[in-house]
Amino acid sequence: MSILAFFFIVVSLLSFVAAQLVLKRAMEVSATSGLRNSRFLSLIAIGTALMTVSFFLTLGLLQRFDLSYLYPFQGLSVIFITLTAAVVLKEKLSLRLIVGAVLISAGIVLVSMS
Amino acid sequence: MQNRPSGFGNPWLQLGLSVACVLVSEFLLKRGATQVAVPDSAFSWTGINGLASPLVWWAILLIIASFISWLYVLRYIPLTIAFPLSRVVDILVPLGCWIFLGESISPLRWCGIALVIIGLALVAKPIAQIEERL
Predict the structure, then answer these.
(1) What does the domain layout of chain B look like in residue ranges?
(2) Is A60 in the B-facing interface, judged by CB distances under 8 Å?
(3) How confident is residue A76, by pLDDT bands cut at 50, 70 and 90?
């Protein structure tokens, strides 16, 4: 794997994780202050933009690598999102959830490597 | 957390719909991206040339549908639970290839699928507690 490929894989993963956090925050805002407020709309716009960046980078990667090769990296997103949601969004995290997230990630990596 | 709507508005149903749309879109994207691949061009790293494939556009429609369902899910379910559960798609893709395309699944791959299922079961357990609070 070239450094360039690694760079695009990391950026695609990071923008995907960030998008999920921003979108979750947007929906939390919408639950309290409705859909027609500038905070909600700007969060949705940022989240959608990050999602779009991640989408096109993934499309570029898919043209070069097998889906099975790229999948382990997507699998890691489970661990990243679970941990960052706990830290950034202050969601409750139990040992059970951590073990579950690690097993899902490990399973996805195994599935794609085999 | 708000009162959970029932019927079509049930967030768990929407999570399932979102997963189904992602599942189909993954196959469409891979096929579409391969059809129009131009690996020599530096521009194609952006993936934008993938838009030349109609399959990619169908995939985009499904992704938008799954996105709307997903936003709805996020309104009701914590990310630490909803996101790991949404990755059930990662074992449905190989299982779909096995069932519908007759591809074989190696023992190692079955182990991976088993790990994901155990992980999903662990993550899904707190749902019972959330439901109780509602």
Answers:
(1) 7-133
(2) yes
(3) confident
